[in-house]
Design goal:
This protein has about 450 residues and is mostly helical. The chain is about 80% helix and about 0% strand. Strands 1-2 form a two-stranded parallel sheet. The N terminus is likely disordered.
């Protein structure tokens, strides 16, 4: 029923979503975000899978591949810091659509590269587009999820990134022997163009963002009707939220109002986790090939990292909902440290089933723990700075993602594996220290 101007009605957007059932609009948005994250994970990981084929084809030394992997993460860093702040000003929807189109085109151009220099430039530019996808999709999922399901839905849907990275291993193992490494990038560039088209027609904007900014209130009413058909709409309705708009740069507010300690500690955890993750994702296929495996075998064994991460995320979504973020992720990263150290053992490297198992466990903890960190950050920061908060966590983490692959090309394989095992141990300690400033549910104490 449309509200009359003589009888003003106030609609609390956050309360309406918290008390709603998951309806068609939310399901549509969740599916689109999941697809976006799947292809994002595929493209971020793709260079690691094709590296063993690219090196001999273009006659590149390993140091050149280290530079390419690092350049992609520099692009992800820039995208995380710039476009997530833009999303807190312009909206999640336009940034997600624009970024997906952009990195799709850049990935198609990557397939045409003929030198290490071209690959490095193109992967950097593509990374700028990809850098904003995870924080914005995570924020949007959280803002459309009922409170009772928020953590579970954020982690379950953002597992799409990990699933896409795992899919990359199987696609690479199939495409490279038949069509060459360039086919992986043709695939990875075409799919996001299709997804961007679907998002243009069907992806809604964050309702809490529209209320906070007092924009597009006509569309807000239409989208609310799809969540709850009984919601009053019209000129006599006032839409309200529980948060106030923050003026100025969203980044500044990350360190204000008692958030400084939690923010900086989260940055340390993200830095260590992405250092470990991107070293393993970027260099594991090459290290396995060095141990005597074929390129296809190395891609399949390396895919166990992402398969473990996919299953680990689903498990952690349930465990965190029961036990909380801090204790679950602390134990997770401790186990990761032990499993990563085991990869350095020659006896493990030479036994394919044992190597696959150890890689699977490392992926379960490190890759599977990352969506948990994203959900934690999205829960910790309010709407006005949510994309910026998650984006800066990922941006600082990307610095670790640059350091890991870069050192991987310059430090002996087994020594570097032990270094990243220590990084996972430091990460566990930082995660445990967050208990002083963040509740088990991820909110500020």
């Amino acid at each position: 029923m449309t509200a009359s101007s003589a009888a003003p009605v106030q609609v609390d957007i956050a309360a309406l979503i918290d008390n709603s059932r998951v309806g068609p609009l939310q399901i549509r948005m969740f599916v689109l975000c999941a697809l976006c994250l799947i292809i994002d994970g595929f493209d971020v990981q793709s260079m690691g899978y094709v590296a063993p084929a690219v090196l001999p084809d273009l006659g590149m030394p390993r140091t050149a591949m280290a530079n390419i992997l690092a350049a992609a993460n520099v692009g992800l860093l820039v995208g995380s810091l710039l476009f997530t702040a833009a999303a807190d000003k312009l909206g999640r929807r336009p940034v997600l659509i624009g970024s997906t189109l952009f990195f799709g085109v850049m990935t198609l151009l990557t397939a045409r590269a003929t030198s290490a220099e071209q690959l490095m430039v193109l992967r950097f530019i593509a990374g700028v587009g990809m850098g904003s996808l995870v924080p914005n999709a995570t924020a949007l999922i959280g803002e459309y999820s009922p409170r009772r399901l928020r953590i579970t839905l954020m982690m379950t849907i953002t597992v799409g990134f990990t699933a896409g990275a795992a899919l990359g291993g199987f696609v690479a193992a199939w495409l490279i022997p038949q069509f060459g490494w360039r086919a992986v990038f043709y695939f990875g560039g075409t799919v996001p163009l299709v997804i961007a088209g679907l998002m243009f027609f069907w992806l809604p904007e964050s309702l809490q963002f529209l209320v906070l900014k007092q924009r597009r209130l006509d569309r807000l009413g239409e989208w609310l009707k799809l969540i709850d058909p009984t919601t009053p709409t019209g000129p006599g309705v006032r839409y309200v939220g529980r948060e106030q708009n923050k003026e100025g740069a969203p980044f500044v507010h990350l360190l204000r109002e008692g958030r400084a300690t939690g923010t900086v500690t989260l940055w340390i955890v993200y830095f260590m986790n992405l250092l470990v993750l991107y070293f393993l994702a970027g260099w594991l296929p090459t290290l396995i090939t060095d141990a005597g495996y074929t390129t296809s075998q190395a891609a399949l064994v390396s895919a166990a990292l992402q398969v473990g991460g996919t299953l680990g995320t689903l498990a952690f979504a349930w465990i965190i909902a029961k036990r909380g973020f801090i204790s679950t992720l602390t134990v997770c990263f401790l186990v990761a440290s032990v499993s990563i150290a085991a990869i350095a053992s020659s006896s493990v490297l030479l036994l394919a089933p044992l190597l696959t198992l150890v890689v699977f466990i490392a992926g379960w903890c490190i890759v599977g723990g990352q969506p948990g960190l994203n959900a934690l950050a999205a829960t910790y920061y309010p709407t006005a700075m949510r994309s910026t908060g998650v984006g800066w966590c990922l941006g600082i983490g990307r610095i670790g993602g640059i350091v890991g692959p870069y050192l991987g090309g310059r430090v002996a394989g087994t020594t570097m594996i032990l270094i990243v095992a220590i990084a996972a141990l430091v990460e566990a300690g930082a995660m445990f220290s967050l208990r002083r400033v963040i509740t088990p549910q991820g909110t500020r104490r």
